[in-house]
Amino acid sequence: MQSEHTGHGGHSDHDVRSHVRAYWMIGAALYVFTVITVAVNQVHLAIPLAITVALIIATIKGSMVASVFMHLNNEKRWIYGSLLLTAFFFVAMIAITLSTLGDTIGTPTVHEVSTGAAHPGAEHK
Predict the structure, then answer these.
(1) Residue 23 near residue 68, CB atoms below 8 Å
(2) What's the CA gap between 11 and 5, in Å, rounded?
(3) Cβ neighbours of residue 68 under 8 Å, at least 6 residues apart?
């Protein structure tokens, strides 16, 4: 019976090959999403839609990098809890910012300026 070679840290050659394969797959997916980003930029979407699409693509790419290259896909449950908490506070900060769009504090009010004449065409006595 032939034994499988183990490298550093007790990982077998098969484990290393599967990790390298995952890295190549994520690298290819990142390349595809970069091409999609450039293609979407050529479409010239409305600014709010373009920002939404760009954030969705960036979130997907960031998730792939964090889960595979940073090895977060093998982490314990508390890592996912901290990531979820970060996402919650991100959404809360965006919501707070968006809730101030209708705020008029500090905005000067517009008053009609009088020209001195009560009625156009009226003569002074």
Answers:
(1) yes
(2) 9
(3) 22, 23, 26
